[in-house]
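Continuing from the previous page of notes. For each protein in this section, the sequence appears first, followed by its structure tokens. Read the first protein now.
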Amino acid sequence: MHECMLCERDMKKSKSQFGNGCINNIFKFLNMRKPARGKNKEQFLYKNIMNKTNISRINKEQKIWLADRYLTYQYLDKLHYGNFDKLKEQINTDIDNINQVEKFEEMITTRKMKLKEAYDLYKRERKFENNLSKLENSNYEEDDEKLKLLITSFSYIFNMYRNKNQYEKYAFWQTVIEVGGRYANFKIAAEFLQHSLEEKPEDLFFTEGKIVEEIKKQEQFQKTISKIIKKYGSNNNEFVFDSNVDEDFPVSFSDKDLYFAINKAELKMIGKKQNENWNLDIKLHDRYDYSEFKKIDKYYKDTGSVSKSIFSSTLYNLAWYSMKFNVMKEYNIDITFKMKDFEVIDL
């Protein structure tokens, strides 16, 4: 079986390295004019790549290997998500030393990224961005069909056990950040996810800002605080609460941004009564990790939408796998703030 070098489809008896459709796509992708009719397109391609890389005096096989590495670099260079700088530097080194290569496998980057893998990444990202463009003028929160469309563009990452390419997973999570931050308005969750993709993410500490203000105004959080005060402050002017000691008051948020960012954090609170209201010192602690595999039906109950359920639970479970494969890193989040003159809600 003889396969196309780009798409790896069987070309049967053809002696060419590329299928006719693939080599036409390559000329278009490189913005390179095709040769006059009758001329060998592949030889014309090799010659142009040699000119672009300032390489000469290489044998037939080295020309093919040069084209493989050059095209791999170009597809990676067109990706908008993920950091491929180190890999591209290594590919450039392989290209510079191509005249010394006796076997294709000698080049270290051939084991890190095949041409087809880079090509597939490029195609999938184009598909994802096309779907993104269809979301720009739609109501993301209400349009289930647009969510389903977006889910289909995630399909390349679903089988994490078979496909353990770190670069592809990193690029995938960058697309999630793009969607979550720009279109779904999950700005806090997107910020935390971005932080988890760093090589060694530091712990995060907050005493003010958007996340603190969002937490303070959450009605569900205020109700939880009120229940705690009623239990511990009814006959006292001061109290101390620790959710690690009393697990009857879990912290959760109806706001979906906070739900994905810090849902079910540990809560510590000191309350001091002032007249009929309370001054509160509050600390929330969360470990940014995905320690359990979530079931879709739970998210269905939370969102009330089948497509939103699939979307949210799928992202959560993919994050669980990404933690397992060290694409995303764990870190601590501590949020400390005061709530003055807090009025207990009549539940």
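Done with the first. The second protein uses the same format. Note its length before scrolling.
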Amino acid sequence: MGTLKKGLFLVGDILVFYAALATMIIVRYQNPSTLGLGFLVHFPPFTSILLIWGLAFYWNNLYEYRSFGNRAWLFRALFRSIVIGTMGSIMAFYLFPKFFEFTPRANLFLFAGIFLIFSYFWRMLALHFSKSGALNVIIIGDSPLTDDVAKYIEENKNSDYKIVEWIKIPTKEKLDSLAEIIHLKNAELVVMQHSISKDFSAVRSVYKLLPLEISVVSFSDFYESIFEKAPLKELEENWFIENISTRRPAYDMIKRAEDIFGALLVGAIFILPALLIAVLIRLSSKGPVIYTQDRTGKNGKKFTIYKFRTMRTNTGGPAWTEKNDSRITKVGALLRYTHLDELPQIINILKNDISFVGPRPESTELSAQYEKFPYYDIRHVIKPGLTGWAQVCFRPSASFEEAYEKLCYDVYYIKNRSLFLDFLIFVRTVKYLFTSYTK
């Protein structure tokens, strides 16, 4: 879903949240003279738990395309979100009883039921308008990735876009008639392939469209808005010069502070489990407790990463872990399943080798092989991370093709990195950890 539509849905959800709150107060306190006071009493505590409900909606993919099309899926996702939001709110009430002492706990369950009904009908209404609210798009140029975009839009009827004209071969006659095509097709957006922008006559024709108040975007930006990854096959060096910022002092400083605080907090919480894991590894198989490996970090600098050992020592095999890999010990399988084998990497975070969020560092062996990918070195312009955009958007790579696909997500992250995107990656990572346990 496009950023604009996500924002509109978030605003809509907030309005529905307060509408459900007001309705709950009306139902619960039917005396008109007490409605104003009831709202004043309930407004602060319910506002404080609004973030919990928003995260519950994001957790259940209610800001993705599929939340529009399937009513049964939508109701199930909303129900799960309401349950999570309610449980999270109960925890908040329990942890901070003085702050919530004026809010009867029973009101929360009445609110949850009303919010579920309101949310469902609000999204059904949004579905109706989203079908008629897609932007009419003209695409100029052709490539394999353009085919992917066209196919995706065709298959996703609730997309933000509708292709009304595709000029695969931009002849002079076609370009000269662009204004007429825009008028006839009621087009609102023109997407230009990068190769077309090198043609002076083509650029001149598109330039003449500006008085028509139509938006013109590059294909790379259009592709990113749909797939949330970079179209590496279509990019050249000038794109990286224009779009990649390697230095963001304020962001880097705040992120480093978060890393240190988070690593110390995780270390304090998991110190006893870590000691127990160390004992289990020592008793279950021969070899060191901690597994070390050379990884490639920022600016190509090598560093040693720390993990709990999950494999038998002195065993060869492929660089990628295979399904039912015989090299993995029984304790190691449990550690990988729960991702507790990653715990020692808080040492790497404190040493400033990695961050909590960033492109996942590859072994020096794999990095050397991946260097054949165009622009692979760009993923090393920032610090790597314990988790990243590629990890939450794509499955673990088990081939060069899949590694290249993850590179597209890494480049997208490097271009768009922010504290907010880092937070979303953290939420998706936590969701992945919990859902992987239930599969």
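What the second structure shows: The mean pLDDT is 85. The chain has three domains: 3-131, 134-227, 249-437. We return to this in next week's lecture.
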